Amino acid sequence: MRYIMMEVMQMSLYIHFPFCLRKCLYCDFNSLAGSAVTPEEYVRVVVKEMELRAARLNVPSTATTLYLGGGTPSLMEPGLVARLLDAAKRCYGLKEDAEVTIEANPGTVTMTKLEGYREAGVNRLSLGVQSFNDAMLARLGRVHTAREVFDSFAAGRAAGFDNISLDLIHSLPGQTPALWLEELIQAVRLQPEHVSAYGLSIEEGTPFHVLAKEGGLALPEEEEELRMFQDTSIFLGEAGYKHYEISSFARPGYYSRHNQVYWRRGNCLAFGAGAHSFLDTPGFGVRWRNALSPEGYAATVLSSALPDEDLTLLSERDAMAEYFFLGLRMQEGVDLGLFCRRFGQSVEEAFPGELPKLFAEKLVERRECFLRLTAAGLLISNQVFMRFIQ
Description:
2 domains, TIM Barrel, Arc Repressor Mutant, subunit A
């Protein structure tokens, strides 16, 4: 596919590193423990993919964020990360002040490795903590301990990271609101700049899905899940963190720039096995993902072909729905003016069947030139979003 653009292309970059020490019991991401493809070979292939895609751009590009996700990207040595960042600068004009994030699992990093990441140009560290409770970590199939969480965070600070995010999961098997509050207390004590707090989702094909079907998971009741979600916003808010997206909390100036590109349907080129890309042209946008297996992905790229699969040209209706429910993920909501300019109609005209119902049920509200979820809407956000997915 050749990308047709009229001006300098503004974009974000994502690089997927699918390898893990062990796959967690709840995880349905494209990740695996063990592969015939070594990290060195994999990075060489990703760089080649970056070069192939760049050759199909008709205009210069400027990348403002880069995100190294997985899998466990912190299994890469700093030299490999440096090669990826060099390719991003060379092929896509990665800016000097770009936000560059690497996901890291506690127990897979040392201060020396983190210093190497900083030297390579990484300036944001996202630690996959999930829990500070060793029993919970074991239940999730994590390979680290709570002690390693604290050690990894301290090493990140010592290595010069002044922008650290913690990932946590609530509504775990056997977890109560009181136990979840203890997790939040531990997180705030570390004083990270950003916290991502997700509710556990039981995904088909995972060991947790099998256990849940067999009745082997003592999951919290729905009322307890809602309580944990509400307590998260209240507790982190009182600690100085703005609840700026459904699962995201940050101190002023530390919102995730990369994730905001997703929520605003910005251009994102993604590289690596199973990585998902989006461009807002031609038409109303195009999405695709790369081949899932590292071996198949590598074979395709090394033959100088692109590993694109499931390519979808979006209709106007698809794009409007995406703009709407992705925008509602953010606390500021959907920019009504931008929606009208992009699609030539108001949101009321675009969704005459659903919007009046949402207003009547007090699930959405207008705030100046934005349409946003109410507090009640936040609690059942997925149900609201499903009304726009056809």
